[in-house]
Structure formats: C-alpha cells, structure tokens
Amino acid sequence: MSPGVLKEIGAAAGLPAQKNMPGSQELVKAEKKTHDMGAIGMAAIGVALWKYVMRYAPHNPTYFNRDRFVLSNGKSQRHTCIFQYAFLHLTGYKKMTFDQLKSYHSERYDALCPGHPEIEHEGIEVTTGPLGQGIANAVGLAMASKHLGATFNRPGFDVVSNHTWCMVGDACLQEGVGLEAISLAGHFKLNNLTVIYDNNQITCDGSVDMTNTENINEKMKACGWHVVDIEDGCYDIAGIVEALEQAKQSAEKPTFINVRTVIGLGSKVAGTAVAHGAAFGDDDVAAQKRAYGFDPDAHFVVGPETRDFFAGLPARGEGFVRDWEGLVGRYEEAHPDLAKRFRKRMSGDLTGWEELIPKSFPEKPTASRASSGLVMNPIAKGLDSFMVGTADLSPSVNMIWPGKVDFQHPELRTSCGINGNYGGRYIHYGVREHAMCAISNGLAAFSPGAIVPVTSSFFMFYLYAAPAVRMGALMRLQVIHHATHDSIGMGEDGPTHQPIELAALYRAMPNLLYIRPGDSEETAGAWTAALSAREQPTIVSTSRHALPQLASTSRAGVLRGAYVLQENAAAVLTLIGVGAELAHAVGVAQKLKETHRVEARVVSFPCQRLFDAQPLEYKRATLRRHEMPAVVLEPYAPNGWERYADAAACVKTFGHSLPGTAAYRYFGFDVDTLTTRVLGYLQQIESDTLLRREFVEI
Amino acid sequence: MSPGVLKEIGAAAGLPAQKNMPGSQELVKAEKKTHDMGAIGMAAIGVALWKYVMRYAPHNPTYFNRDRFVLSNGKSQRHTCIFQYAFLHLTGYKKMTFDQLKSYHSERYDALCPGHPEIEHEGIEVTTGPLGQGIANAVGLAMASKHLGATFNRPGFDVVSNHTWCMVGDACLQEGVGLEAISLAGHFKLNNLTVIYDNNQITCDGSVDMTNTENINEKMKACGWHVVDIEDGCYDIAGIVEALEQAKQSAEKPTFINVRTVIGLGSKVAGTAVAHGAAFGDDDVAAQKRAYGFDPDAHFVVGPETRDFFAGLPARGEGFVRDWEGLVGRYEEAHPDLAKRFRKRMSGDLTGWEELIPKSFPEKPTASRASSGLVMNPIAKGLDSFMVGTADLSPSVNMIWPGKVDFQHPELRTSCGINGNYGGRYIHYGVREHAMCAISNGLAAFSPGAIVPVTSSFFMFYLYAAPAVRMGALMRLQVIHHATHDSIGMGEDGPTHQPIELAALYRAMPNLLYIRPGDSEETAGAWTAALSAREQPTIVSTSRHALPQLASTSRAGVLRGAYVLQENAAAVLTLIGVGAELAHAVGVAQKLKETHRVEARVVSFPCQRLFDAQPLEYKRATLRRHEMPAVVLEPYAPNGWERYADAAACVKTFGHSLPGTAAYRYFGFDVDTLTTRVLGYLQQIESDTLLRREFVEI
C-alpha cells in the first residue's frame, strides 16, 4: 500500500468508523424485536474491507474476478447481516436503496434485507445463517479460485486472482462444520483465503468464557493458519487494513485475523450479553449521534460527508472490471484455445456430457455404485467443469477416472507421493462429510456452472452433511451427491449405517432430487437428471451390492420419476419397486404369477419429486390406483409412500448387522417372504374393505 | 503403580502383545469381505487397558462405578470392533464365548459381534460406528461421573470415581462432532477422561497426510488437553500403561495419548492403505503365527498361556465390586439420606415428576416454548435426575429454573462470574448442537435413568444434531430435546431457519417421538409423553410466538397422538390441526361454519408415532376418513400426512424471511386464505371424483 493511502486511512480512522455506517443504530432500534449490536462493533472492519481492501464492482456485482466476501456470522438474531446490507448500500450497489435498507425486518415481500444474507441478492455470494456454513463456503470459494487460476492463468495473465474474505463470530468457530473446513483449508494452504474473527467474546448466553476457553490462535496455528491479532478492532482501521493487505500477500497459508471488537459499541450495554439480545434504546441512539456530531433528532440520515467517503467506489469498481476485461482480451490473443475454454467455463456451459453417457452397459450384475462410475467417470474425465470429491471413501464410491489428478497444494507431492496440484479435480476431503458438502456449495457458488462439484460418501453419512445439502438446495446450486451403500443391503455395518429414515428427509427437502436407480440403465437416467438440473442439487443413491440388469428399464423413464416397467392387462395389483429393490418387485411379480396365478404389473419408482412434476394423466396411467391396489417394496420407513401406494413392505425399526442377503432375509425382504406378505395383503383387504382405503404396512 | 506390577508388564511386553489377541487374524481372514487390520495394531493398547489399567468386572458388567470404555473408531469397515470383542472374550465376559467371537460378520441373527459395538451387549457402553460420535459420548460419560461424584461423594466416600477411556482413530479427530466435544471437554477440565489416539496414519484413501497435515498435539493442547506421546504403540505396553496411569492422576485436564501404531502389523501390507481395506491372506496369517511361535496349521486356537495371562480378571473385577459395595455400605451408615438419594438415582427411579406438572395454565396466549418452561422447569428444579442444557440459546428456550446452578469446573467462577460447579445441572454447551446431543447420549448411557438429559435449541438446528439424535434413538436412551422456533411462524430468520422438511425426518426416525403441542395444555401432554418414554428420545417441538389457549385441548389426548378436539355431528369435513397451527384449524372451522355454512370437525394431531400405536378402532373413530375427507393444515412439507389426511395445506418450498404473521400470510396460512383453500378443495373433489381418493395439496 502506498504511503498516501495509509495517510488517508489514518484520516478516516480519525473519524469513528461508526460514523461511516450511519443509520444503522436507527435500523436496529426501529426493529425492536431483533438486535444487531454486533454490526456496530464491526463497522471499522467493514470500512477497511469495502473502502480499502476488497476488489469488487458495485455496478457490476457478478464480475468474474471480484473478491468474494462471506458473512458467516450472517444470522440476524445472533449477529449481523445489517452490517453487510449497510455497506452494500453505502458502496453503491444499485438495488440496495436506502428505502430497501430501511425495510430490514419489515413485512415487505420484496425486501432485499432478509434476516440473513441471501444469494439471490446483489453483492451476496452465499446464503448464510446456520452458523459455521459460511466458513466452509468460503473455503470452497477459495478452492475454486485456486483451481481456476491453476487451470487458466499463464505468465503475465492472472485472469483468476481474486481473494476470499470471510467474517466469522465466536459461534462459527465452535461449530463442527467450521472446524472441519478450517482444518482442510490449512492442509490445502489456501493463501487466498482470509478469515476475520469478530472477537467480541459475547454469545447469547453470556461471555464466551462460559463455554469456550481454548486458545483459538494456537489452535488455528496448529491447523496451518497464519494468525494476526488486532487489539482495537473498533477504531484501528489502519491496523486492520494493514493486516488484510498482508493476508493477501501470505505466501502459503490462509490467514486468521483475530479482531477484538465490542458488541453494542457506544451503547450502555456495550460488551455484555444483553447487547446480544437487545436493540438500542432511544437514548442510546441519541447519545451516539451526539458523540459523532449528528443531530439526534434527525432520523435515518446519511450525511454528505459519508456519501463522499464512499462515493468513488462504483467508478473504482468499473476500473477493476475494465482492467480485467483488458487482460482477458490480451489473453485471448496470446492463448486463444485456453481463452475459449475459459469463456466456456465462465458461461457455465456444460455442453458435451450427453454424448459421454454410455448407451448401454455390461449385462452382468453390477452394484449401482459401480454403475455410477461407469456413467460419471468418463464425463469427469472429459469435461473439466467437474470437481469430484469424497469423504475418504475412494475405494468404495467408484468415482475415480483414469488419469485423475488430485486437488492439492503442489508441494504435498513430496511428502506423501500423491499426484496432485491446484489444477487437479479430485478432492480428498478427509472424513469430513459436512464440510465436504458445505465446501462444495462454495465451489458451485463461485460462478454459476463454472464448477459443478460432485461429492461422495455412504448415504447414511449424508445425515452428517444434511445441513449443507439443505443449503445447496436453498441456494439452488447444482451439486451432485453420490450416496452409496443405501438400503439395508449394505449389510454388516448394521443399524448405524442402514439409512432407514434418511430418504424421508431428502424426499421432503425442497428443490432437491433424491433418486434411487435400480440398475445400470436407470443409473444413467439418474445422472442424466442430475446433470440436467442446473439449479438443483441431486442425490444419486446407489447400492453397495450387485444388482441384476433388468429388462425394459429406461433412462427416459427415470426422468419422469416413475414409469411402468412391466404392464399387464390382467393385473390385479401394482408392485412398486425402488432402486436396489426394484429387482425384488420383478421377482415377486414373477413368483405371484408362477406359483399363485396372481397377475401383477410392476412400476419402477426412482424419484418422487420428478414424478410429482408429471401431468396428472401420466401419474394416473402409471399408478392405476383407481383400478387396483399398489404395494411399494422398499426397506425404508414408508413415510411419504402413502401418496403413491396403498400398502408397503417396509422397515420401521432400525436395521441389523448382517451380510446383505441375510439382512434382507432378516427383514422379510427376500422374494419368497415378500410374495407371502403381498398375498396376505390381498386377503386382508378382501376381509376388511375399509383397509382398501387405508395405508397398510404388510 | 508398584515396581512389581511394572516388572510384570515388562515381562508381558516381552511377549508380542499380539500373542495375547489370538485368533483375531483368523477372524479377519475368515471374513473376507471386511478387514480389521487396525485391530492387530491396537493389541498392545488393549492389553494395557484390560489387563492393567481399567477397573471393570467381567462377571458384573454393569457395576456402577466401573470405568467406561468407548471404541469411537468402532466401525467395522474402517476400523476395529473385533479389537473390543476379542478382549471381552479373553477377559471373561460370559456371553462373549469363543463361538460368538467366531461368528463375527456371520449370518447368525443372535450374534454378539455385529459390525460395530452395540450397547445391548455386555461390556459395550455405547453403540458406535458413525465416526466422532464416540468421543462426544465419552465426554458425556465423563461429565456424568464428574457430576454424580460432585453430588454424592463425601470425604472418605468416593462412591463415584470411575474413569472414562475412549479410543479414537484418525477419522474421529477429523469429524466436526468430535472437534466440538474435544473443545468442550477441555473447557470443562474433565480430568477423568482419556482419549487414546490409535495413530496409524492410514485412512481408506491412503496416508492421513493426504487430507490432514495439522499438528494434532498442538491443537489438543490449545483446546486445554494434556498430551502424551507413545512412539511404539505396537509393543511398548509398559509405556502405554504408564501413560494411562498418569492420565488417571491428571490434576485438571483431560488427557490425549497419541499412540503411534502400525495398521496390519505383521502382514505384508503393514502400514499401508491397502491394509485398511483388506483381510489378511493365508500366508500372512501363517507367517504371523510362526513368528509368535504358534502352529500355522491350527486355526482359531487360544493357547493356555494366553488364557492364563487373562485368567484372573473376573476375580479381580469381583474384588472391585466388593470393595465398592463395602464403601457404599459404610456410606449408607455415615450419610443415610444422601445414600438413599444415591440408590434412587442408581435405580433410574424418576418418581415425583407427575405431581410437578401444572394442572392448569394461565389463560393468556403463550408461546409453547414458554409453556415448556412452565412444565419442565419445576421438574428440573425438583428432581436432580435432570441435566438441562442448551446450545447457547438460554434466553430463547425458556429452560432456566429459579436457582439453577451451571455444570462447570468450579474454578471458572472466578474468570467469568458464573454460578457453577460440577454439581450443577444446567449445561452451557456453546454453539455446538451436534456435540450437545451426542454428549447427552453419553450422559444418559452412564447408567439407565441416573441422568435424564434435556437439550434445547431451535428446531432447525436439530438437523445439525440429527446424527446424534438418531444414535440416541438407536440406543434407546431417554434424552429429551426441546426444539423451539418450529414452523414458519418463527419469522424473520427466514428460510435457513424455517424447518420445512425436518419434521419428515423425525416422524420417520425409528423409536423417536416427535411431538408438536398446540397450547400449554398440550405442552403438558408432550412433556408427559417424553418423561414417560423411558427407552425413547423425544423431540418436544414448540413455537417462538404466542399461541392462544384452546378450549378442550387435552394432555391425555396428546398421549394418544391425535384426538378429536371438536366433534360435529353435521360435519362434512375433518380439519387436522398440528402444534402452532392447531388454532388455525379451529379458526378455519369457525369461519367455514359462520361464513359458508360448511360444518367441520377438528382433530388435534401432535404426534404421528403415538397415534400409530393406538388400536385401529380408535384411529378410525378419530379420523372418520371413510365418512368424510380430512384436510391437514401444517406449513411443512406434507410427506407422510397422506396416511392420515386426504389433502394438505402445506409448504413445499423453502420459507421466507418475514415477521411471523406476515410469513403465515405470505404462504396463505392466515385463517381467511386457508378457509378459501379448503372450500376450493371441496369443490375440486366434487368435480373430479377420482381426486377424492388421491392426496391433494391445496
């Protein structure tokens, strides 16, 4: 930084930083039910970031090489999204008008100031709120930048060179997902990532000392982070700017800046837990205004001095954009092919995957986790948009393509002999399922479609990751989760690993596709759905054990959610088969016919959400429930199948540790026992006709 | 430790420790599909623990003051439950016969050697498998011991003085839940807890260095742990014993023992990732046997030398039991009243709570989170069996009783002025929802009913905690979760905090009660159900906002899951109301009648699982679905309601950040709009009769 800039910062620091965040006391006061005293304490950090350090363009909010800012402590009730909203307004984001700013926590349906930052709005990179997620998102954003830089930058042409800034509170550093991500960021030596700790030492319950007395700086150092302390985080803008600038120059570590702040700065409850749950009082606001030289009777005023202070930022931002576009223009001349690929990535264009999906598969029985590899690995190999990772289950999830290179700091190679660098696209996340999925959200959020992350683990462990999977669905990010070892067929690991009830969560989760394919052909359909869903995450849920290749399965059918696998004009019953147990339905239909002369039709039903989107006529023609009862066979809790079936062979207890086939037998899920159960149901509804209109567990 | 014992250990260490774990290579080999080479590398640790250090009684496995051992790395596929099973067999647990040991991963339905340790079996303190949970369980077990000791011990009478030992692998130290629990254990200065790190530096994917290069010892020190290194963990039994004995004497910190081991010790793939996913080969087993002086052609043999080595342990254990029972006998004479309370706690007797539940409530509108406080706080105050905690939401969850004392290390008082000691029963968990619930499982598992843990947080954050809630259900532990801020009525925090789909998970989760009470009276019913469920966890799901007190709500009705709130002989429709929206159903019924002359009956439906357990006749009489359609009103994903209703006013998208009443209005959940929607449905099923037999979202 030039001495001139430093001098200017000194002058700015002479003004209390809070002066540059006018109106926020009013906003907090006006909304009596909540309370964002944290925002006041963080004002100096905001000035340092938005005025001096961050590279962004308010009038061009999605400019590709912008710095990314994540407010991990974005929750309104505990923390301080108003902090970000106020700076978006002051720095000139067009949609964030003063009128919008005043709508904070109002009843406006079109408010841009919801109770936490939301990705839909200008200047917001990721939706935050559930604590700790933002750290992991920021790690993903920084990895995306490292990766794209390693892929596309050439000497003299750093076309991807942005920095990621993440603001956290005490809570983010207590949450497991944050701790997982911190450990991994240190491992990856992400020197383009800075975490700024708003260390006000106050949580809802009181002093942080009540629950956390660890030495956070030493902990971060042990995790491979560079640590900087700022003692006066409320006023020392110059010190903060210096620390942030140094962080940008960090040679090989992410930086953790521990900034001491005071919650509720300037109010009577400053520095206490009361400030955590309180709004400023009238007298507090008036006193603060007097101290800063404002008229205490003028409300919601941003003075000309403040407007001037931030006035040049849109123009500066346009300069950044012009410079970068100029660079990319020269890059196109120097490296035309590379630039073409770069443009394709920036546009989110995935063209090419359709042709790479196999048209047919080997006829031998194949675990659908292996079928997933047959489908996805050629695509991951062929299209560099995909970054595939696993939570330490590479040998189990079958997602390695020939010649894959790991995403790693290039020096790691020497220490454990792996083939990796930042250009690599296979990510070893460690046994950190939750961070894996939250980091993937960051990878996907960097720029729509520039990176499509694929995660993988056992299905049961997606319960560990569920809060992050949910955030991906909420943010409408295309992240594909390959969840193997579904159903009880996964066997010996037993009840802790048999996901009896987990499908119920994911089938209910908005904007997520949960798909259980029944063989290789259906697995092709599941991945086709996932790859086509540009604004949805998908869970492709596959088996550990080999599944037979069934006649007449159809990838096109999968895209409709459910379809008739075996029609039967004489049918008295529909059997619904799902995923790893689709073959069971086929087997039961055959057995019913051959042994008991009962005719059944079979419907394959891999995805409820895709089926729900079909026209009513298609749904009725597929299920034919007005003509005959439908029985679903799935060794999961049946919750939700009541919409599509009249009865279920299901599992309502936890599972049992047994080899897969024995586990099926234990739960009466072998074809013989299932056949008996279905016959029993047919007798049952004959003897009690009311049952025909109720849902029956058989 | 006496010099004599040390000498004996020296002699034992002369034998390779692996010799004392005979047959395990065979077991691993016999079960080709899995692979527990980790167990071999940990054998010396096992000898140190079971032969020398741990206080336990094989023939009296639930003796109250026993040391607790938790195999956090208990997963069969990655780690090593066979380790624990082998030692349970060798040390003389009666049910763990050699025949049972050989059944590991077999098809026996009654096997005691499932793919992970299960709490149902002798010598197993908690069910483990999902990684990281065991650390948190161990923290809970250690807290239970600290708490009971502080409550009941008197000078000369340490009636509760056991130690907790927890074995972890690389993965447990990467998982967020483990990291949260580690931080809290350091804060609480649990010197009765020792974590033994089986540091073999190998995971599924390869070297741990691929994903984790942090300095674990420094990290643990920063978290307030005492750290000890053992360089030769495969053979240095004396060194391990010394470290474990020192850990028992730790003055004020938990101890972390970093033990370097070699995975697949003695095999050709020792120390490599191949060993992680492999079984020993025939030649490996033969070579190992030769090296240890065994006959390579004799299979599944435990020699007399080994039997002798462990022979005295049952008798030693009975000595521990006799000594302790003698101590308790003298304690009963010295402190008769205290001893009586102690006996009551040990028996799990909760007698007394029924009388403390209020018979009636104030008539004013009350948030059900506050109603929960009215119900539970007098019980928590009156019965010391309850330990109530929160993940940093004390002001929001209303679970503080007058005069509550915090569970804290007594010295903490000086540093932040809190009223706490180990005898306290209010636990500040910090913002660590997942660890809160996993630690609570440990508190509950210490001895059935001795401690009944209550957790509290916003309902949405129970998604963070879901893997631990699940483990509590799987272990049949009585843990009560008070989940506040349910439904969209919680308001401004918006979609990240509005739990649209979360109820679907918990309604499907086996052995868990998810209950949404509709007013104070129903809240009394919800807690009555939770307190009565001695082998089930419960989620009491309550509102942030005030709910009116409704006429004819019934706590007894809640215990049946659903009940008729308003019967109506002229009804053409049943309205099902749930929890915070029960009043909406009542309002719609009234509006339908007054404005549209449509008669409806109202059913209150707080808990699906309790209702499912009712006789068929009761269920039919309550819902009367064969006579008229039923419409459920709940602003959640409807999945699962299809079993009880024909239509739903529901929410299938994520929520929206608005004040509570505005959020209801935004989603058409105000009484006027709901009435219109219900009328629309009645018209719809008239015009399309097929719809009457389908589930309709209105």
TrEMBL record, chains A, B:
CC per GO annotation: cytosol; nucleus
Catalytic class of the enzyme: transferase
EC number: 2.2.1.1
Domain Transketolase-like pyrimidine-binding: 366-549
PANTHER family: TRANSKETOLASE, TRANSKETOLASE-LIKE PYRIMIDINE-BINDING DOMAIN-CONTAINING PROTEIN-RELATED
GO MF term set: metal ion binding; transketolase activity
Protein name: transketolase
The protein's required cofactors: Co(2+); Mg(2+); thiamine diphosphate
Pfam families (UniProt xref): Transket_pyr, Transketolase_C_1, Transketolase_N
Keywords per UniProt: Magnesium, Metal-binding, Thiamine pyrophosphate, Transferase
Annotated organism of origin: Apiospora kogelbergensis
GO term, biological process aspect, one: pentose-phosphate shunt
Classification via InterPro entries: THDP-binding (IPR029061), Transketo_C/PFOR_II (IPR009014), Transketolase-like_C_2 (IPR055152), Transketolase-like_Pyr-bd (IPR005475), Transketolase_BS (IPR020826), Transketolase_fam (IPR033247), Transketolase_N (IPR005474)
Homology family: Belongs to the transketolase family.
Catalysed reactions, semicolon-separated: D-sedoheptulose 7-phosphate + D-glyceraldehyde 3-phosphate = aldehydo-D-ribose 5-phosphate + D-xylulose 5-phosphate
